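Thread: quick sanity check before group meeting

JM: Hey all, I'm pulling together slides for Thursday and realized we never actually wrote out the predicted structure for the chain we discussed last week. Dropping the sequence here so it's in one place. If anyone has concerns about the input, flag it before I start.
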Amino acid sequence: MTWPNIRDDLKLFEGYHSPQLAVDVRLNTNESPLPPPDKWVDEIQKAVTTIEWNRYPDRHAFELVSQLAEFHGLQPNNVIPANGSNEIIQSILLAYGGKNRSTIIFEPTYAMHAHIARITGTRIISCDRGESLLCESDELETLTTTKPNIIFLCSPNNPTGIIEPKETIISALEYCSKSGSLLVVDEAYGEFSDWSAIELVENDAPIVVTRTFSKAHGFAAGRLGYAVGATRVIDGMKEVLLPYHLDSFKQIAAITALKYRSEMTERVEYLKSQREKTSEELKNLPLKVWDSAANFILFKPLETVGMSGNDLWKALVDYSVLVRDCSNWPNLTDCLRATIGTEQENNSFIDSLKAILG
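JM (edit): ok, ran it. Output follows.
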């Protein structure tokens, strides 16, 4: 038997994984700890009975796109939905990246930007952030020498939780407008921050902003994301998406979810309040803690603790608490990331840390 070989450039490529362990408190994947409203679930169950399963879905997801556009004060041709924000990122790189093209990524940041860039054959220009972990003017100056086709900025950034200043986004957009590059602002956690780059979206601006239903909407199981941007950019992304890529159930579920925006906002405010409370608790322990504008917090043990980040991660698992070990991410030695959970989950997390750190 002779088997086909995977592409040579993928053979040693590690995928994006997060450990799944049986624990009481799971705070490692930035999911919402709260399910969608019961009324939403009831409405979905009824809506499913109306689906013509033998028919293809609406290829253009017109109703969903129209409602998302109205929500953001844009036109339908400024919006494109997909199977999670990762498919959005993939379509961007397929359309505007690829062979003989490059993308610049400011580390540390969301690993899937580089992961999908490699899969699509896009050359990666990796630039380290400074001590502030922000993308500052010195880093942006590298754009003029590296001349990337695509610029990725994640705000709030994953895994740091830091939001990029509006001035940084505008500076990057000004560069793109002059150079023919595309600015991608990943706002998977945008609902938890104080401002959004969506306000910069215009048909004469080379910017696309990505969003997801997985976090604030509590619809991680549904895998739905979308992007808003200039019509010309969105049209380019449509060229590489497969026909009928968004199934009927997902479209109905998302349309229904948009009816419960007020409930979503209440849950976001609850998680933000829990974030601030948890952050203050962490700062009272021998830990370095970064301020966050997302639904998670980055932290690391101080040298006086005498244990590495991975040691602390293992100790938390022994207490049946699972957080994300970011120790092997660029410039994040010994760092851990904890998703904001319910008040009970957050208290268990803090109590476990107190027991471990004394």
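AS: nice. The first strand starts at residue 25 and ends at 27. The mean pLDDT is 94.
JM: adding both to the slides.
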